[in-house]
Design brief:
heterodimer; A: alpha/beta; Transcription Regulator spoIIAA; 15% strand; B: alpha+beta; 4 helices; 5 strands; globular; Serine/threonine-protein kinase RsbT (chain B); HATPase_C_sf (chain B)
């Protein structure tokens, strides 16, 4: 059985599927990614499927599982590079890929993850700021 | 006029990959459009997996056909497995007796032009699909 390599680039794990995967290979990728997310603490996963000429229900379900597993492990998954014919076929097949974020290519996928991460940090900072301001409020209100 | 088909034994994950590759090669040879190639290979992948998982293995035969007006591809998926008891239920989106999504049979039918199924409890299942060039 072949294995799909998982590359770490900064805070992102990048997977580019270049082979026609056996079902077992897809399941192995799911496991490998979960392990690497925990081992590296990466917050983003990009799965490039631009080399895939079909995505059937098994691969689709595996991608959805990977997205769910990643989220539980505090990482966001973006599937990038889906071919137009694959998108048309997936919709006709009835596969909806719940919970999967998509982008047209790796670069846009990285932008998406960076924006989401920045938005998360912003919310976190805001929360901090509120906490810090609380003790100051009575002081400021005092004459 | 039908040409002699190519037969693949489906007994493992690897054989499902071989079915996809054969169907793709033949689909390119009869000049299906890119979208139709993609639909047919996807349907073949779903049905070959069903042959393996639910039929306990079987055969897939890929044949080029011609109805006098246009060429096409016919694929027969045959197994000697338990057969399908309730066909209406089996064709319901989301219904599965296994661990899949329940889209294989119903989805595959939407992706091809002709779809015939012969099955009976205990007598195996044979599914014939055809995709014609546009």
């Amino acid at each position: 059985m072949e294995r799909v390599p998982v590359l770490k680039i900064g805070d992102i794990l990048l997977v580019s599927i270049q082979i026609d995967m056996e079902d077992q290979t897809a399941l192995q990728l799911q496991e490998d990614l979960a392990d690497r997310i925990v081992a590296t603490g990466c917050h983003g996963v990009i799965i490039d499927i631009s080399a895939l000429d079909i995505v059937d229900s098994f691969v689709g379900r595996t991608l959805a599982s990977i997205a769910s597993i990643s989220r539980v492990l505090d990482a966001e998954t973006v599937v990038v590079g889906m071919r137009p014919a694959v998108a048309i076929t997936l919709v006709e097949l009835g596969l909806q890929l719940p919970g999967i974020r998509t982008a047209l290519n790796v670069e846009l996928g990285m932008d998406l993850l960076a924006r989401e991460r920045a938005a998360d940090d912003w919310e976190f900072d805001e929360g901090d700021a509120e906490d810090e301001s609380e003790p100051e409020t009575p002081a400021a209100a005092a004459p | 006029m039908n040409q002699q088909g190519e037969l693949i034994q489906v007994n493992s994950d690897q054989d499902v990959v071989r079915v996809r590759q054969l169907v793709r090669t033949v689909a390119v040879a009869v000049k299906l459009s890119l979208v139709d190639q993609t639909k047919l290979v996807t349907a073949a992948s779903e049905l070959a997996r069903n042959t393996l998982v639910y039929g306990g293995g079987g055969t897939v035969e890929v044949t080029t056909v011609d109805n006098g007006r246009r060429p096409g591809i016919r694929i027969v998926f045959a197994d000697q497995g338990p057969g399908i008891v309730d066909l209406d239920l089996a064709f319901t989106d989301g219904y599965t007796t296994g661990s899949g999504l329940g889209l294989g049979l119903s989805g595959a039918r939407r992706l091809v032009d002709e779809f015939d199924i012969v099955t009976a409890p205990g007598a195996g299942t044979s599914i014939t699909v055809t995709k014609w060039c546009r």
